[in-house]
Amino acid sequence: MLRYSAILKLKEQGLSLRSIAASTGNSRQKVTEVIDRATEKGLMGPFDDDMTDKWIEEFLFPERTLESSGRHPIDFDYVHRELAKPNVTLSLLHHEYELECRTNKRIPYSYRSFVRHYSAYANKHKATLRIRRKPGEVMEVDWAGSTTFIIDRDTGEKVKVYIFVATLPCSQLSYAEASLSMDLSAWITCHNHAYSYFGGSTQILIPDNLKTGVTRNTSRELILNPTYREMAEHYGTVVMPARVSAPKDKPSVEGSVGVISTWIIAALRNSHCFSLEELNREVHEKLEEFNRRPFTPKSGSRLSAFEEEEKFALAPLPKHSYKQSSWRDAKVRPDYHISVESMFYSVPYEYINCQVAVRLTEQLVEVYFNEMRIASHKRLIGRFGQLSTNRDHMPDNHKLYIDQTPENAKDWADEIGPNTLKVIDFLLGTAQTERLALQSIFTLKKLERRYSKYEIERACKMVVSMTNRPTVKSIQSILSNNKKSDAEQELKRKTETANNHYGFMRGAAYYGGADKDE
Fold this sequence. Notes:
alpha+beta; Nucleotidyltransferase, domain 5; 6-stranded mixed beta sheet; 19 helices; 15 strands
């Protein structure tokens, strides 16, 4: 066996390839091959007692061990890359490996040996072991059990501060942030910052069963807080809370919480911060140190493992971070409005007396019925009691009343005819107040439900020809009389038509007579 450790140690001492070859009794070609492979794999001193020549050979040239068995070698780099892809498993890759062996007429490894060799390769060569966790698959989140504090500038009292922790199990990269509370707003804000820190989102999000995120979690049903569910949908992830009293469902974050409690919370025990921003700067500095600390049994760090083996697998973030919203229930009042924080917002009048769900953001108020959005308003601010009413939500009679302005009244009359416009101008010009005139015009406009535009124009023409002071009541009377008169004339016309159709008309020729002139 080559003296791998001697070759690498002499190289670190600065000896030339010729000197190393002469000292170890190997060719310069072999020495060059070993040094190039060690540089490629990132293997460098100091070397401990466990790193024997055999260990180094298996690390640098794993394929040689497999080739000696007479079986078809496994392309571990290919297996490692393919496992990062969605839904790819070792079972599928072993099946493809067997097909390749049959094609090349080579003897394959069994599935158990395949998995064993890959596990040994991943443990030795990679910072992450994908046989346990796929990259970009899971993010585990929790509040740390230990707390820290900031100092109130005015009173000098210590204010308790909580630490949010998020971990990617594959690379073990963690995120931490200090917060003054553990309410829903802080929970969502910390998630937004964690996704921004990682630069992407995972397929699955595993929280604890805290009330701010999970309303109910039993073997039969899972009910999430609506805001938390909405945030997960925004980032394209699925929330799968850990089972009650089952910390093994999220072991990575549980382990990270303990380590972060030591390397961040305990490390800051002698720091005196006077604001949350100042404390978070300290936390982030310690966090960077924590993520860059080298792994003890293998090369690399959490950050390097993330950048090399997991970052590419994260889903891209949306263009904008999630804007927090809150939900509440409301009942539609008889005036087709709902009350939200002493402000009133309209919904379609068909939903009067119905229970609806209301989603509140900083800018919008959205109303849902059976998970379907039925109304949306810009959120009102300022004095209480303001109304936001959408015209499309009103019944037809309310629309007519709301639309009453002198300009709208004239536009309507102009569509009917010139005589109707004269009546409208007279009402607007002679009424004591504009409101009284508009009420009279509103009554006149409602007549359009029973009479055609032609009938209204004809009645206005008759009124204008009879008097210089037309009234709505006189127009109503004329319309009613005209209706009766038109009905009588129509009945008379039909009767005459019927008699003419069924009468017998015989001329003189029928009776054998002749004209006198003849």
